[in-house]
Amino acid sequence: MDLKRREIPKQSPEARTQNFNEVALGYPAATAVEEARRCLQCKKPKCLTRCPVEIPIPSFIQCIATKDFQAGIKVIKQKNLLPAVCGRVCPQEEQCEGACILAKKGGQIAIGRLERFLADWEASQGDPGLPELPAPTGKKVAIVGAGPAGLTVAGDLVRMGHRITVFEALHKPGGVLVYGIPEFRLPKAIVSREVEYLKRLGVEMVTDFVVGRTRSMESLLAEYDAVFVGAGAGLPWFMNIPGENLNGVYSANEYLTRMNLMKGFLFPKVGTPIKQHKKVAVVGGGNVAMDCARTALRLGAEARIIYRRSREELPARLEEVENAEEEGVAFNLLTLPVRYNGGQDGWVREVECLRMQLGEPDSSGRRRPVPIEGSEFTIAVDAVICAIGNSPNPLIPATTSGLHVGKKGNIVADEESGKTSLEKVWAGGDVVTGAATVILAMGAGRKAARSIQEHLSSC
């Protein structure tokens, strides 16, 4: 067994903090082949059971090992029409790679990097061509939200012969892929390329269209045979502590949308103005928090993470934490913000904090952070970004009678089918689960598409 996992080339920390170009540069072909040949091609591959979109992982890896890259990308696209996206942002270490038999010896196959390699290889070959599509069924499906869940449903159902229309509230399709994930992790040209492929398959994209305002859910149901809601989780959470109304206190959604979707990082080359902060604190420990801190760093600020638990409990991917550390992001761990203080000009000036220690596990299974008495201290800042989570926007439930929602405003849907309380309405992704990962949203979309197809076949 070859346990030496091939490392992916990256920009140096010194270079990448000066630009917004992609950090990881991708495998060269020779390295991808070497990595693929490490795969044991197990008779009962466990990696398959941990892929939310059901990619035949050993099959595409074997294609790389034999240098048949065209066959490899064809295998992937049977199940996943967003391979360049998933190869970059999917938490493979917790899913397929974590289930790899070699993981027991610390040498799991770099499945995500191999998926990315094939997607990038295909892009380098020019027009990928289109698969043969079945005859039109005459059935029409409306999809609310052009994020990972909605795009997955669109790709699955259009290849079954149905007429698909995607309604997106923003001016570009992609959802969190375009507004939430920075350019240095996921170049937007890649998202555009994947979306364009869906359009070529026949998916209609309608942007600047807010379901619940531009048009009601009831009117969509009157026109379409099925509706899928994949509107994401765009309502940010705050801590409800004093000072959150000060200037310079942002939600992660606001900050990242301005930087990514509206290209604020290119100001003044683009018309989205940004304030040049010098000391930025990001509250939270997930991937979104790392994205905010690393963005602020590239814009010239001293950036730090404030997180109430220890490094071991950070929910962000280890790769993203390591990248942030390499780039110079500071970490105030076991630290809880309790107040933001501002100056006479109304701008935030410091964060009051408490030091924490870990107690007994809470309902999440992680040890509960407990304040240390008398440990108060302050951190000087001129901006704070709150990245502690999001809930679904309440607009669709508020304007759609009979649609059941949970305590946090999430649409209630069956876990296996995506069916909601309304006939002909399915839902999946963050609008159901709350903010989660891209690949879990895509997995929910896959299940919903299967259920929608069963419904359309019977009516």
Task: Produce a short descriptive summary.
This protein is of the alpha/beta class and 459 residues long. The chain contains 17 helices and 16 strands. The chain has three domains: 112 residues, Fumarate Reductase Iron-sulfur Protein, Chain B, domain 2, CATH 1.10.1060; 163 residues, 3-Layer(bba) Sandwich (FAD/NAD(P)-binding domain); 151 residues, FAD/NAD(P)-binding domain (3-Layer(bba) Sandwich).
Any overview of this molecule?
The protein has a 5-stranded parallel sheet with strand order 3-2-1-4-16, sandwiched between helices. Strand 11 and strand 12 (about 365-370) form a beta hairpin. It is built from 17 helices and 16 strands. The N and C termini lie far apart (about 55 Å). It has 3 domains: about 15-125, Fumarate Reductase Iron-sulfur Protein, Chain B, domain 2, CATH 1.10.1060.10; about 140-235 and about 390-459, FAD/NAD(P)-binding domain; about 240-390, FAD/NAD(P)-binding domain, CATH 3.50.50. Helix 3 packs across helix 7 (about 110-125), helix 12 (about 250-260) crosses helix 13 and helix 13 packs parallel to helix 14 (about 320-325). With about 450 residues, the chain is an alpha/beta fold.
